[in-house]
Amino acid sequence: MPNSYLVVGGAGFIGSHFVKELLSRKKTLVRVVDNLCSGTLEHINEFKENPAFEFVKVDVENTGDLVKAMSGIETVIHLASNPDIARAVVEPRIDFVQGTALTESVAEAARISGVNTILYASGSGVYGDAGATMLSENSPVSPISTYGASKLAGEALLASYSFMFGLKCLGFRFANVVGPKQTHGVGFDFLRRLMQFPDRIEILGDGNQSKSYIHVKDVVSAVLLCEEKVQTGFDVFNVSTPDFVSVNEIADEVMAQLGLNPEKVVRTYSGGDRGWKADVPVVRLSSRKISMFGWAPMFNSREAIKNSIAEMHSELTR
Amino acid sequence: MPNSYLVVGGAGFIGSHFVKELLSRKKTLVRVVDNLCSGTLEHINEFKENPAFEFVKVDVENTGDLVKAMSGIETVIHLASNPDIARAVVEPRIDFVQGTALTESVAEAARISGVNTILYASGSGVYGDAGATMLSENSPVSPISTYGASKLAGEALLASYSFMFGLKCLGFRFANVVGPKQTHGVGFDFLRRLMQFPDRIEILGDGNQSKSYIHVKDVVSAVLLCEEKVQTGFDVFNVSTPDFVSVNEIADEVMAQLGLNPEKVVRTYSGGDRGWKADVPVVRLSSRKISMFGWAPMFNSREAIKNSIAEMHSELTR
Predict the structure, then answer these.
(1) Across the strands, what pairs with A200?
(2) Torsion over CA of B72, B74, B75 and B80, rounded to 10 degrees?
(3) Strands (DSSP E) found in A40-116
């Protein structure tokens, strides 16, 4: 019997990279469900002739439809989430509706369908603002954004479903994921704006926000390796690069990509130490736990940023 | 202006004790909302002539109704929750619907209404099964029951609402709460069954499950003290007694209360080390953090159990 995966939110940026990797494997079926609200068919168009690929338009909150889509599936990769995390400032329920509630629907559908494994995109937002403390998976969790809260709520639910109903559930606390097909994020925003107005750039906060970035290919390899290495139960893994890049440095990289002289670009800052109300300005994630499985990222933060900016530039000028 | 409290789930066992304590204070308005699914009007009947007391029947998931009920309220005490935690084995969504989603509704209604403070009944279930490890508030959290998952999801959401919207939110991880008006729990079950069949007792697990019990009056004093001591932000407190009592010892106490000779009562055990699938058989909570505010329980676990059994016996034979 072939391996069978359902990628929930598979028409999104990260999802389409999972689909590509899984379809490159022999005897592997890949089904995508997505409501196409933030994901797009463009991301998965290249797979549509592949007989091992299926797409079903499903609202993830509709557990009944999800149960049907999980028929015959062994592993669910759950990536469906609100992509615009700052929107909660004006729409406070968004991360509950498009986060917490979706994960509950996925877990319940998986239980009903007899799925083996749920691989869940959590995030570093679960830790809240711990400053420059190096965070391991056992560090205290105290989200400051509703986005982080929805990720932690999802982890907690999957932990309980794993214990009570025997599902293998793994949660992944990613650094900021970048790469081809990216549809949001600071590098993406800078690139689009500088292509339009090459003489000025508006930077949220003071530009010193300092975080790790990870290439989407490294995320895919990390998740699928853990699926293979962990046999049962619930566990959670940080997935990050060892270095970090500031927002000002990302602006520099974007200007370099566009061949702009940074001296001639006027930078204005919104001020304060963070990009938006519940942004965490400094994040330090230890990937020691997953490295014990032999995982290491191919790209560090700086390389991932450079590479993703070049890719996005090529996509935007294609 | 008087102090004003809304007790969500105020017709329940714990809620009615908060109402009593708050009404004993001067210039304090107490409004109760409850859907009366597990709470009952009997619990709050004694207050109905008090001009400082109001009751409104509200479904907590109805955020609009909750907003109306929060008019003029400064502090919300949120106790609404599924009381039958083992029910999730056959009804897996219950703790999401009657837990996680209710807390989201309370938080959102409080934000809209301009409430100052949310005091939230979380639980030791957030920690999962850590064996005999003494748990502080910074210990890792990994729930094994959907009940524990719903409590952690609630804490996470309130932490983010506190940061993003400026509410003071405090979460309380209680030991097993016992006392007058108790409507469930192991002592309650043993008492009811032994009063009916005094020759036999069925014990879930092996009876060696060992946990701390806390008198409901000590819970009330702990929560209201923290409200006073913490000025802003989000925080979480264990609220427990220093000793612990096994299920077999609770059976002994119930027999002693009923004047039964324990030698003549046949004990049968369901077997295994726990009461139900996602029970945590051994729990050790450190209350060091809240003790720094000068809080100490009036009753230890054994006294709380004895006292609650005597009270329940008197209620059942009244």
Answers:
(1) A266
(2) 20
(3) 53-57, 75-78
Query: A-B interface: how many C-beta pairs under 8 angstroms?
Result: 114
H or E segment and range at residue A31: strand A28-34
Q: What are phi and psi of A32, to 5 degrees?
A: -110, 135
Would you call A159 helix, strand, or coil by DSSP? helix
> Whole-prediction pTM value?
0.96
Q: Is A57 on the interface with B (CB under 8 A)?
A: no
Give the rounded distance of the alpha carbon of A214 from its chain centre.
Answer: 10
- The ipTM, to two decimals, is 0.94
- Which two three-digit tokens encode residue A143? 């989200």
Residue A196, Cβ neighbours under 10 Å: how many? Answer: 7
pLDDT of A233-246, one tens digit each?
999 999 999 999 99
B96 and chain A: CB distance < 8 Å anywhere? yes
State whether residue B188 is helix, strand or coil: helix
Contact between A15 and A43 under an 8 Å Cβ cutoff? The reply is: yes
- List of E strands, B123-233: 168-174, 176-178, 200-203, 210-211, 213-215
Task: Provide the CA A281 distance to its chain's centre, in angstroms.
Answer: 18
- β-pairing verdict for A234-239 and A168-174: parallel
- Secondary structure of A238-295 in HEC code, one letter for each residue: EECCCCCEEHHHHHHHHHHHHCCCHHHCEEEECCCCCCCCCCCCECCECCHHHHCCCC
Helix-helix angle A101-113:A146-165, to 10 degrees = 20
Q: Which two tokens stand for residue B22?
A: 């708050």
3-state secondary structure labels for all residues of B232-261: CCEEEEEECCCCCEEHHHHHHHHHHHHCCC
Cβ–Cβ of A148/B142 closer than 8 Å?
A: no
Query: Comparing C-alpha atoms, which of A136, A307, A165 is closest to residue A236?
Result: A136
Structural domains in chain B, CATH included, are: 3-177+214-239 (3.40.50.720), 179-210+243-279+300-317 (3.90.25.10)
In A, which residues are within 8 Å of B88 by CB distance?
Answer: 164
pLDDT tens-digit readout, B10-59: 999 999 999 999 999 999 999 999 999 999 999 999 999 999 999 999 99
**Residues written for chain A:** 318
Q: Is B165 on the interface with A (CB under 8 A)?
A: yes
Residue with tokens 């105290």: A142
